Amino acid sequence: MGLATAWASGGPGPGSGGGDSLTTILFLLAVVGGAYLATHFVVGRLQQTFLFLSGFEYIALGVALGPTELSLVHAFDDMTAMGPVFAFAAGWVGLLYGLGFELKSLEIVGRPMRIALMDVLVTGGLVTAAAHAFFRSGLAMAVVADEQAWLSAMVLGCTAAAGSTSAANLLEQRYQGAETHLLPMLQRVAQLENLLSITLFGLLFCVFHVGSTLTSSPPSASDWILLTVAGGIGLGVLFSIFIGNDKSGNNVFLAMVGILLFASGAAFFLNLSALLVNLLLGMFLAQTRQGVKIADQLERTGRPVSLTLLLFAGALWQPVPWIPALVLILGLVGLRLLGKVIAVFLATVGTPLRTDLFRGMAAQGNVSVAMALSFQIVYDGPEVDLAYTAILIAVVVHELSSPRLLRGLLVDAGELRQDLPWIRS
Fold first, then answer.
1. Mean pLDDT lowest for which of 32-36, 187-191, 351-355, 371-375?
2. Among 75, 111, 308, 388, which is least packed, fewest CB within 10 Å?
């Protein structure tokens, strides 16, 4: 890595021509490939041994590649040109989650849906209200205009409400064969939270839409919502017709990447959420005959996409004043925990479920990062940079702490013995 860094930083500047662009692309491919191999052979073992999830190292690597004063390589100096690539990475996350959704599964959600709904309402609402008050208070930063304050606060609320199955997946890998009823339910809760959070997040891009259009009168929020929904479902219909009964896995995968590129690029240039457009695309495809094949084809891309997303997230980071950033980070982490405590209590009262299930809902992963990335490439302002910083740090904090919190819950619930031997994969 040191040799690669020296080689890339010793090349010509950003404006020197096509050779430099090729060098940058090759360097980025090498970085992503090296990061994936390191994760697969080294970090993965450490995560199972010491029960932690991490992404800070990849975010830090992205910062080192970005255009800030902390950059060492300047691989991402031209952020404008990289915008569609960032949207593509976020869109891939939406597609993966959409492909995991089937309408018939709504018949069996029951209590998980109740917990997810309550969590999104309480946690998201609590964080949104507090963040808006902070942006408008002028205590640690200049007063933010009301509309911009609401937008950034609602984005923070959406990311706080989003969950992740990463901690549950890690424990399943470590304690293979352990029978537990809580893990599947908590995984379902996280999936439903992500579905609701991505939907609300995408609607924000329609309500607070920015950018000019070629129409005589600017489209309304309902017009942008209709375009988002029609775009996702319409592309799903076109893809299904195009693929037909094609049995070739490679053809399906390449066609899927092509439609994903088109959907994400269109969403980016229209200043809409690529995350929601591709979620709808994936949800439609999940109901078709090709749904299982497409999901199987893309499932193996989950980890590389996650690493690339974290790398891009670091590259987009901008330095912010540390006092308001610290206040916002502490508030986000603390209020997210408080919101989940209240939400779980309200959702489980009168049921046999444990009231401390919030201990298994701390994980916050790809969806929150993809939301932050999508937000940063479309909107700008000091409140946007602060919210972006708070989201990334909160994700790192929750990913580090969530596996041990979840294991403690399973041990206390009698579903996992603390001395149970773990399986090396």
1. 32-36
2. 111
Domains: count for the chain: 1
Query: Do residues 370 and 321 lie in contact, with contact meaning Cβ atoms separated by under 8 Å?
Result: no
Residue 162's CATH number: 1.20.1530
Q: Which of 292, 354, 276, 265 is nearest to 100 (CA)?
A: 292
* pTM to 2 decimal places: 0.86
Q: Would 67 be classed as within a structural domain? A: no
Whether 107 is in a domain gets the answer: yes
Residue with tokens 């390449």: 254
The CA distance from 283 to 275, in Å, is 12
Q: How far apart are CA 75 and CA 30, in angstroms?
A: 12
Helix axes 221-243 and 182-207, enclosed angle (nearest 10): 120
3-class SS at 290? coil
Domain enclosing residue 334, as ranges: 82-412
Residues 314 and 318: their CA atoms lie apart, in Å, by 9
* pLDDT one-digit tens code per residue, 400-425: 889 889 988 998 888 876 555 444 44
Looking at mean pLDDT, say which of 22-31, 174-183, 242-251 comes out highest.
174-183
- Whether residue 62 is contained in a domain is answered as no
